[in-house]
Amino acid sequence: MIVTQINMLNPYLEKLEIRPKHIIAHEYGAGSKCLNCNCPGLDLHFWRKICKLCGCRMDEHDVVMPSNFDHGTHIKKLLIDCSSLQPSKDSENFINLRNKIGTAIFHKKEHSSDSNSTTTTIPSTSNSCNNLKESIKEPIYGKINKNNTNIVNDCTFKNNYKKNNSGINNENDRQIPEYTWLPQGVPENIIFEYMNSIPESDRPLIGTEGEQVRRTKLAYQLPYHDSDSAACKSLQKTEDIELHRKFVEKIKKNVVGIGEIIDKREVKNCSMQTNTYQNVECYNCNSSLHNTNIVVDTSKGPGKDTFHPKCFKCEVCNQLLVDLLYFYHNDKYFCGRHYGEQIYSRCFGCDELIFQNEYTFAEGKNWHIEHFCCFNCDMSLGGHKYCVKDEKPYCITCYMNKFAKKCETCNQKIPPDQERLTHSDLNWHATPECFKCFTCKKSLKNLPFMLKTNKLFCSGNCRNAFEK
What is the pairing mode between strands 103-108 and 426-429? Predict the structure, then answer.
């Protein structure tokens, strides 16, 4: 009775005992919209990284992860020592966004003498915010928009204008750009210039194509099973798990890095070299950086090169490297997916790297031995006949049930190993018994024919006889 009264007074006490539901790997993104087709929504296969309903990959669905999980941040925690991401103290004009997951907001401060104008509240403990206010003439302010997130060295902005003047429209209140990701340790005005220097479709603005593009790129460029052995279902033997561990350790020590955004107007020399950025060419397009103010530099990680922001791309897929995360190998820059494929083969069935010594090579692709199986029923295809449809293997039985064409004459399905004749959408067995004149029964194989109401005729006389 006492407990009931307490709960009535404070209903939130009941929620203390309600733990969040655990979501297993293949339940992530359940129901997410497919970007390729109109399937009911993502229903992830338990070991394939594809939808069971439409066959499209997980990254081809607009998967929105739980609010407390950011794919990019998760991969960085697995591969990069967070202490190495501490922003440089050379300039105090930065916002510390380290280890923060949420939405970044930019808005321009309007300077006005009116008492009701937009005001800026700056904590007295934040010297960086004071310096930021004084050093930037028309600053673009940023913050993390996320409940229950304490922002370090950030400025808090309050807008009393709209509250006190609800009848007046304020242009800045109507449209405030919100980003799902921002580079760390970079002055806000430089971030603004960087975002404007990459294609609009790659800017992770909330509610735009760029937000969805970032999610898709994170899933495609940074497969979580490449970095986390717990998510790699194909690792069964101890020696395979050890190979995966060494693979990840090598990435941490010598391969992975985060591109640094540099304002070359404020840099006198280029990464300990005597040449200035003015004399450096973009590593990707080989053109001069002379007319570019903002560049991406890799001198603090593997590789010592400089790029136009729009040129910082993967060597294989040519996509802009998401969240500036790169993998350096043989003097080339890759996304996580295509770096992994430089070292190990990737199974076409489960999308995981193959660490086993033995695997199957079929249809021009690599497979775990156990994963070269029927795409529909999972029957092993080793030593069995199979058919390929849309680059996916099927056993004969499943192929017959799903894809086999019916003969117009006998109304029976045509096996894939039998010869078939086709005209428009009509199909026949290539036999005298099926491909023949409807009236006189003459075989029409390799002969001219006429078609009437899906029936074959050898001549006008036979067709007229049928019409009578």
Answer: unpaired
